[in-house]
Amino acid sequence: MARNVVTGPAPKTNTASAKVGVSKKTAGSKRTAGAKNPTGSTRAAGSTKSAASANGDASTPTKQSPREARRQQRIELSREQILDTAEELFAERGYHETGLKDVAAKCEFSVGSIYTFFDSKDVLYEQVLMRRCIDTETLHRMLPDTMPADERLVELARTWIQHAVEYPAWGALTAEITRLSRSPGAVFPEAWYHQTQERQRFLVDLIKKGQTDGILRHGSPTSLARLFHAVVTSFIVVSTMVRMNGTGEPDDAEEFLGFVQDTFSTRPTTNPFHEDLDD
């Protein structure tokens, strides 16, 4: 099931503006990665069964041949190439201005080859959005409850910023779709919707614990979670635009993280930029 997403201005990749759009159709389920190769032939199973032994023992899987291993590696590389290309084009042109023909042409594949991996543009778009997401299970491992809540918030912001720097097209695309999703009536791919809901719950629980421990400022945990997400997303959008357009130096991430610490924590600041302002 897909949720429609409004379009709007977005960061640029190289010289083209990054727009976000979302399908008005329901997204189908993705085909199994590598179900067929780019020429359309059926993918062989990763292992085969050997003939049953004479004494009636159950058959055992045989080793994958080097040839089959190379073929499956080529299939997976083709799928990743499609996702990389679609990520770049969706960030550069937006959802509605990017067609499967555009993706196929840039990959030097046929459109039919794209369909061997993805049932539709909706499915491809959803996979582009979801493949680099940091899920909440990973966040719990990275930011355990034993850490002070203000430090968890700062490290969470740092993680999201670094992730967007590592994957700039994805960072621009997802930051912009997150911003636009706050518009009335905006909806987006179901998997992305559930991901954002889980992330919101993670933030609310983190803030509640921090307030109980006396580390985070008082206020509605839901509102504070939304505020945190909004300021981090805005920083990523602006920094990505500057970096991609080459219009100057991105804002200092460490200074921004100090701002996050000062805004949400009740503890005395350790932010050197804040101390400089006091002087």
Give structural notes.
It is a single chain. The chain is an all-alpha fold. It has two domains: 1-37 and 69-132, Homeodomain-like (Arc Repressor Mutant, subunit A), CATH 1.10.10; 136-166 and 189-278, Orthogonal Bundle (Tetracycline Repressor, domain 2), CATH 1.10.357. It has eleven helices and two strands. Strand 1 and strand 2 (16-17) form a beta hairpin. Helix 6 (149-166) crosses helix 7 (168-180). The longest helix is centred in the N-terminal third of the chain and has 28 residues, at 66-93. The chain is elongated. The N and C termini lie far apart (55 Å).
Secondary-structure map:
Blueprint (H helix, E strand, L loop, with lengths): L11 E2 L2 E2 L48 H28 L6 H8 L3 H5 L5 H10 L5 H7 L6 H18 L1 H13 L9 H23 L8 H25 L7 H12 L7 H7 L1
Antiparallel strand pairs: 1-2
Helix pairs in contact: 1-2, 1-4, 1-7, 6-7, 6-8, 6-9, 6-10, 7-9, 8-9
List the main descriptive attributes of the protein structure presented here.
Tetracycline Repressor, domain 2; 279 residues; 1% strand; Arc Repressor Mutant, subunit A; two-stranded antiparallel sheet; single chain; mainly alpha
Order of helices and strands: EEHHHHHHHHHHH
Query: What oligomerization state is this entry in?
Result: single chain
Number of discrete domains: 2
Overall pLDDT level = 77
- Low-confidence stretches at least 5 residues in length (pLDDT < 50)? 5-56
